[in-house]
Amino acid sequence: MELRELEWFTTLAETEHMTEASLRLNVSQPTLSRALARLERKLGVKLFDRHHSGLRLNKYGEIFLDHALRAMSEIDKGEERIVTLVDPERGSVSLGFLHSLGGWLVPDLLNRYRKLAPSTSFELRGGACDAVIDDVRRGSVDIGFVAPEPVAEDLEWIPLGREPLCLAVPPGHVFEGREHVAIADLAHEPMLALRAGFGLRHVTDRLCREAGFSPRVEIEVTELSTLHALVAAGMGVAVVPVPRLGQATGPVIRCIPFSDPTAFRHYGVVTRRCGPSGLAARRFLKFVARGSTPPSQSGRSAVEETVGRALTAARAS
């Protein structure tokens, strides 16, 4: 079976219209119709139900489409692997990441790596922690940037650093004048949080559980920016990462450091146990593991130094 036949079939399955498919493929309708007839003869079944308004993919067509798409995807991956073996810098790397890490960690890494390998292309996909991990496990993305460390024996985890957490409160809140708060102080506070499945929610639930209570989460959201906006509107308080220097949090809120020594989240890289399949992705992973957070003279990573300064600024504000 020719690759061209698979491409024509998938286009027909997408459009379910012979004229539209022929225009998109730049082939004549008779040629396309004969190709479909040959394919159906090979398989011994009709793949489409014919209607006066066009074609409609039937159950046999749906089964074959699933396999056709996978076959074409594998061919594309094969071509990409050959290209990256010849010239690794020309390869493509797919990354999954938490939205909160997409605001600073991912852009910084890509900016520095593109200076070393300017021909490497990247496909970026933000999402919740659980979704990113599932994408890595399925092979939908090569590398995932998540927090905290996932509990998954079939995946490899490379720690990169940690972010201290703080309590975001609205102006005029009873906690506003404090220099710090304890997690236990939140036992009776209405709280805002990311939905279950997000890394920050995992950490928030763990901290509250260790302090001996279940958080009173009254509103769940999917974006950190929405969390900040709801705090500013006086809807409740939220556990959030300490704002980074120069990072705008949107609406005016007060970020109060926690006194608890465990109020932080580890962030890092997750891959399949065997590592990424593409050479370009493997090269990028080595760059991240070796040079993403070089030690400073104080012994802490550059990222931790930056966050530490932000924490000091938060205490002083």
Automatic annotation (TrEMBL):
Q: Does the entry feature the keyword Transmembrane helix, yes or no?
A: no
Q: Where is this region: Disordered?
A: 292-317
Keywords (A to Z) from UniProt: DNA-binding, Transcription, Transcription regulation
Q: Where is the HTH lysR-type domain?
A: 1-58
- Which residues fall in a coiled-coil region? none
- A Pfam family that this protein carries is HTH_1
Q: Read off the InterPro entries from this record.
A: LysR_HTH_N, LysR_subst-bd, WH-like_DNA-bd_sf, WH_DNA-bd_sf
The yes or no answer to whether the keyword Transcription is present is yes
Please give the family membership noted in the entry: Belongs to the LysR transcriptional regulatory family.
Protein name listed in UniProt: LysR family transcriptional regulator
Lineage here is: Bacteria, Bacillati, Actinomycetota, Actinomycetes, Kitasatosporales
